[in-house]
Write a structure and sequence with these properties.
It is built from two helices and three strands, in the order αββαβ. By secondary structure, it is α+β, with helices and mostly antiparallel strands. A hairpin with a 5-residue loop joins strand 1 and strand 2.
Length: about 130
C-alpha cells in the first residue's frame, strides 16, 4: 500500500487568505504588536481600497506599529459575533489630511514641488534675533 502525502503546511494555508476574501466575509483584521503589546482591529472592507485585493492578510501587517515595529506583529482574522456590534473598538478611516509645505527660494528660481531644495534650512529661525 502506498504511503499518503503529508504536507508541511496546514490546511487552510494562512498565506492564501487574501484581503478581498476577508472583506467579502465581513471579517475584522486583528493586529497585535509583540513589542509594545498594542492591540488594533481594522474592518477588512476599509483596508481593501488602501491595500488592494491581493494583499495577504495573515502574512503582511497592514501598517507598522506606533513603536515602529513591523516584523513582530501577529495578525488574526475574526468574524464579529452579534454581540460585538456596538462594543468593539475598531480603527476606521476618517478622512485625509493635507499639509501645505513651504520652501524659501530665490526670486525667479523654479520651484520643484516634489523635492525640498538642499539649501533649505532645517531650522528656519536659526540665526534670527528673537525679541525680548
Amino acid at each position: 500500500m502506498p504511503e499518503g502525502y503529508l504536507s508541511s503546511v496546514r490546511y487552510p494555508d494562512p498565506r492564501e487568505h487574501w484581503l478581498d476574501r476577508a472583506a467579502r466575509n465581513g471579517e475584522l483584521v486583528v493586529c497585535r504588536c509583540q513589542r509594545c503589546r498594542r492591540f488594533v482591529r481594522y474592518l477588512a472592507a476599509d483596508l481593501l481600497p488602501i491595500l488592494g485585493p491581493s494583499h495577504r492578510v495573515m502574512v503582511d501587517p497592514p501598517f507598522p506599529c506606533r513603536c515602529g515595529e513591523r516584523s513582530l506583529i501577529t495578525i488574526k482574522c475574526i468574524t464579529p459575533a452579534v454581540g460585538d456590534y456596538g462594543l468593539l473598538d475598531i480603527r476606521r478611516p476618517a478622512g485625509i489630511v493635507q499639509k501645505q509645505r513651504w520652501v524659501t527660494v530665490k526670486l525667479g528660481d523654479p520651484v520643484d514641488n516634489a523635492v525640498i531644495p538642499a539649501h533649505y534650512p532645517k531650522d528656519p529661525l536659526r540665526g534670527l534675533k528673537r525679541p525680548l
